[in-house]
Amino acid sequence: MLAAHVVLVGLLVGTTALFSALSILNVRYGARAIRENADWLAEELGVEDPEEILGYQRARTGASLLQTWVSLALLLGALYAGVFTAAVDALADTGLDPILQGVVFVGGLLVAQRVVVVPFSAYSTFAIEEIFGFNEQSPRLWLKDQLLGLAIGLVIVLPLAGVLFWLIETFATPIWVGAGWALVIGVGLLMQILYPRVIAPLFNDFEPLEDEAAREAIEDLFEQAGFAASGIYTMDASRRSTHLNAYFIGFGSTKRVVLFDTLLEELSTPELEGVLAHELAHWKFNHIWKRVGASALQMGVVFAVFGWLLGTDWVPELFSLPAEATYAHLIVALLFVYPILELSAPLLNQLSLAHEREADGYAVDQLGAAEPMVGALATLASENLANPFPHPWYAAFTQSHPPIPERMRLVRERVSEGSGDVSVDAEPAADD
Question: Cβ neighbours of residue 404 under 8 Å, at least 6 residues apart?
Fold first, then answer.
């Protein structure tokens, strides 16, 4: 039993320590690289004050590390001070069906998690984002978002948890493992349809794109690629932040394009076409389904491990949990599995990196030029104060997109190779 405790604490603390070390290493590495490549930043990204990027990265990293360690301390405290077990015992004493006990317990966890996160979210929004000129939220809107986010989380997660607990209570291990896996994957796919139609409009207003020139250019781009979407929408992101972004979401006839209004203000029409052509490539090359397949494989392994852990005697004994509280056993099992998922992140990130490079290449091919895509990347990086030079180890574990300098170099090289010209761009050096 002692060995199991050592493994659990080692996984939780060790993984957190590893990612904290990588975050600190990334900030230091980025600071050195940004200062060494100040001329490149000014020429390519239009960054006049590199120290602003460094300050933003330091502030965000520091706040994130503090939140992570406080959350871990509270989790370990709840486990080893007996709070977790006491809560399970209290629910058992109510006489509720074990499945309902599990649903109540998960609801309590979601509320507790939100309470822990709220101070850090407030600091990030009204201190860090405010100082660096990104925040546009009022305290009232921020509070509404917190409460609405919690309510939506409860509506989605509690029924899912209830069905999963019912499967565990009702069926043998091989059956509930397979059914639980299918349930989670199915809900994930369903959210691709429900999010743009039901959830996102609760937070933002979505209006059809009014810019005639931009809409015609986008529609021509889609027509050339044989792509159909249910609509091109502008989202009022400026109500909350000046950050720039755009996304595609949905399957089949529910696909839609969403552009932040802040993005429309900063990008030219050709640059906007480059961003959308990149996103379009993810559908054209079935990147979405490939990632779904990779995630499904990952979740299959996770559920197989859950099945094994719940079949052991030592999982419930670890924190003296009642035998009938299988929901609590599953939560303890999750504590063993989650760190392993984090450590395996480079595997999925490698797949994503390959997809992003392929999408960049497709965008350049569609536009027949590199500079619109280069300009879009430069604007996105500079306006969002992104770190152009992440440490390779940090990037391997946490980033699904290649660094901006690499992407700019590759798109220019693609055009140069196609025309027979020599590449004009040299990627800035950032030696380790």
Answer: 45, 377, 378, 381, 386, 388
Let me know: does 198 contact 360? Beta carbons within 8 Å. Answer: no
Dihedral pair phi/psi, residue 268, rounded to 5°:
-75, 165
Coil/strand/helix, residue 118: helix
* Integer Cα distance of 58 and 30 in angstroms: 10
* Predicted local confidence at residue 213, as pLDDT: 78
Does the pLDDT of residue 144 top 80, yes or no? yes
pLDDT digits (tens, 9 = 90+) for 174-213: 999 999 999 999 999 899 888 888 999 999 998 888 777 7
Tokens 């405290």 locate to 77
Residues 6 or more apart whose CB falls under 8 angstroms from that of 375 comprise: 267, 268, 270, 271, 274
pTM (global) more than 0.85: yes
* Stretch (H or E) spanning 257: strand 256-260
The type of residue at 432 is: D
Round to whole Å and give the CA distance between 397 and 297.
Answer: 19
- Give the residue carrying structure tokens 């889609």: 222
Dihedral class, residue 188 (left if φ above 0, else alpha if ψ from -120 to 50, else beta): alpha
Which residues on adjacent β-strands are paired with residue 246?
259
**pLDDT (0 to 100) of residue 423:** 37
CA gap 121, 164 in Å, rounded: 30
CA 106 to chain centre: 22
In which region does residue 316 sit, left (phi positive, over 0), alpha (psi from -120 to 50) or beta (all else)?
alpha
Give me 73's structure tokens. 């301390």
Q: Determine phi and psi for 249, rounding to 5 degrees.
A: -155, 155
